[in-house]
């Protein structure tokens, strides 16, 4: 512990020296906001830098430091920050009613809905837009409960679906207990009792739980490519089992594609697996950098939000739902990805595979075991997402339990020390890694690998 604290002190001193203006602004922020901000993940220790501008792979802070960024708008900016294709469009385009919100319907949301459903390619599907992934997954669960008349929810242990009260359970790993308990005060006890968790990509555990509780479950919600839980791809066999079991028990199968939608192909990742869920949630990429999310799925379920529905779900929309500018940005983004799919996705997959391998190699060169998650599988041919893990023993990362168990992986090294070490090298990551965009060129990746190599050298000097 003494070695770790001494190393952190060295890194913090270097970081503080280069971010004096950010420190001053953070002091101001703490006086008026809880913990000095409005999103916990952005408030890292000792304090976050404050952004001045962002372009392509770069973020520049108010002190003038420029970082190669892999957070990329919470993984939303697949083309990099402020891509030219979007900026060019808005320089010449006056959104319906102007750029400020008017509260009226516009053509752009119809075009975005048509394009999204076309790329999904299912019959009798509809979509409704909202403004965050949290709201999309919340409404999807509510629609499933109304449609089935059941209250039970099944999710993946370690799966993050936003801060909806329905899904704030089994997110954080607890030593010796696993993913078992509620994450927040204020969630009704009845919701917690009705929410259950299963192990990711474990078909036998899934079948055991569904056989025992299936007649009480309204839905099974999961990410086919696990996001915060570890950047892990489900096997096709697992998702096929999930589809078969949910159909057998009348359970609504929900694919949360907030992160994976349009990240691996110009559609949901479900198209690569050839599996049709009953409902899907989308966000991030479909807004082109704006606050857009969606619930898409079988019309008979979405129609539960109609005023005359017997089991009506008040999926009414919020003030900024389907903002014309947001809808236009989403349409331009998806249209670009559809038209350039043949170059965008292979390039991102190759870049991800090379970066993961090179990052692992620089740590091995210093005698430090490091394993990246984010690799593809037999269905997903490569991935632009990566997460760096430091196993405490030889192991394969197959589930969120493997990624987040402090008995098997060094959490502090991954979440705190690596981030700070890379910030001193002008590289910004979250959970040890992040998302590669098309704006990350070979020179940026080379510089990133050099930053990880320097971090590995310091790890060996101070900790190993």
Describe the structure concisely for a colleague.
The chain is an alpha/beta fold and 464 residues long. It has 2 domains: 2-82 and 341-462, Aspartate Aminotransferase, domain 1, CATH 3.90.1150; 85-339, Aspartate Aminotransferase, domain 2.
Provide the fold topology.
Elements: H1 2-18, H2 20-32, E1 51-55, E2 58-61, E3 66-69, H3 72-75, H4 84-92, H5 107-120, E4 125-130, H6 133-148, E5 152-156, H7 189-193, E6 195-198, H8 203-213, E7 217-222, E8 225-226, E9 232-233, H9 236-249, E10 252-257, H10 270-273, E11 279-282, E12 293-298, H11 299-302, H12 324-339, H13 341-364, E13 371-373, E14 385-389, H14 400-404, H15 411-423, E15 427-428, E16 434-435, H16 442-462
Quickly list its features.
Aspartate Aminotransferase, domain 2; Aspartate Aminotransferase, domain 1; alpha/beta; 16 helices; 464 residues; four-stranded mixed β-sheet
Structure overview:
- This protein is 41% helix and 14% strand.
- The protein is α/β, with parallel strands linked by helices.
- It folds into 2 domains: 203 residues, Aspartate Aminotransferase, domain 1, CATH 3.90.1150.10; 255 residues, Aspartate Aminotransferase, domain 2.
- It has a 7-stranded mixed sheet with strand order 4-12-11-10-7-5-6, sandwiched between helices. It has a 4-stranded mixed sheet with strand order 1-2-3-15. It has a 3-stranded antiparallel sheet with strand order 13-14-16, with helices on one face.
- The chain is globular and about 65 Å long.
- The two termini are 12 Å apart.
